[in-house]
Amino acid sequence: MKKIFISLLIFLLIAMSAGFFGYQKLKAFQQETIKAQPDQLLFVERGTTGKKLAELFEQEKLIENAQFLPYLLKLQPEFNKIKAGVYSLNGIETVQELLILLNSGKEAQFNVKFIEGKTFKEWRKNLENAPHLTQTLKDKSDQEIFNLLNIPRLVKNIEEYKNLDGWLYPDTYNYTPNSTDLELLQRAVERLKKALDKAWNERDDNLPLANPHEMLVLASIVEKETGITAERAKVASVFINRLNAKMKLQTDPTVIYGMGENYQGNIRKKDLETPTAYNTYVIDGLPPTPIAMVSESALQAVAHPEKTDFYYFVADGSGGHKFTRNLNEHNKAVQDYLRWYRNQKNGK
Question: Which residues, by range, are in coiled-coil regions (predicted)?
């Protein structure tokens, strides 16, 4: 009996030693350094088991031998709630840190920046070059994308004027890998709708604008005319005054937009006289669609224009504009600007 007790005791001691040794091995493995590149991504599929995760770690050369990983996950079940996704390994140094990340579900984030005042043609290049964004629109025309986004338009000839300019909210958009380009654009459309609805519902009384679409068109013109936020409400007042007085808007950005590929960086007298749907030196009122993506400040400027008696403005040479009440004042301001421009050109 005594021999049996001693044998059992020895067995228990051996088992405890083995268990302690194994536990220490797992703790050491938990703190083992992984070999990840700063920009490396780890793709974890749904239903990945401990064994599959160990194989993935070795396959991605994060660790040479991950045989202890399944045992670690059993010993510490708080690490065994792995969530599928794409993870950035930037800043991850140990197995434990990696497991915490994979259990958090915090996938890698990327972003694409869409700038106000630009057109969808320019935005589309950024979209197509966005890293790890699933491209579903490359073979689609602007008109097809317009339909996919289900953008409401208040234009009489909707088939003729299906373009996306003005209908997407400019901002920096974050996304996770495997997001689609269409999903990202849908977010931009929804944000624009909210900003436009807010501006329209809170607009000043008696604006010469029939609907939110016309507000968006005018805001796009204000956006292109000045990049100075503090000046936009005054620029908007000029166009509001002109619309009220039944004057032509006579704004160069609309002419340029209507010229399309024919614009080579310079507007000639001939261009101002050539009829297009967007030539506001020829047409009455607003052009049929927005001419650029619109910032919220431009929308708010149109919703709440300054109360002025200005009908003209011209660049003043300092980045801003000189505002005037009548044609004589405007012509003088133009001459002042031309004089400044010639002096700058001649180095004076």
Answer: none
Judged by DSSP in three states, 223 sits in helix
Q: What structural domains does the chain harbor?
A: 30-108 (3.30.1490.480), 113-310 (no CATH), 312-347 (no CATH)
Task: Confirm whether pTM is higher than 0.85.
Answer: no
Which helix (H) or strand (E) segment holds residue 173: the answer is strand 172-175
Q: Is 73 exposed, middle or buried (0-12, 13-18, 19+ CB in 10 A)?
A: buried
Instruction: Say whether pLDDT at 140 is over 50.
Output: yes
**What pLDDT is attached to residue 338?**
80
Section 85-89 average pLDDT: 92
> Coil, helix or strand for 110?
strand
The residue to which tokens 């405890």 are assigned? 16
Share of the chain above pLDDT 90, in %: 65
Distance CA 57, CA 63 (A): 6
Lookup result for tokens 């984030």:
109
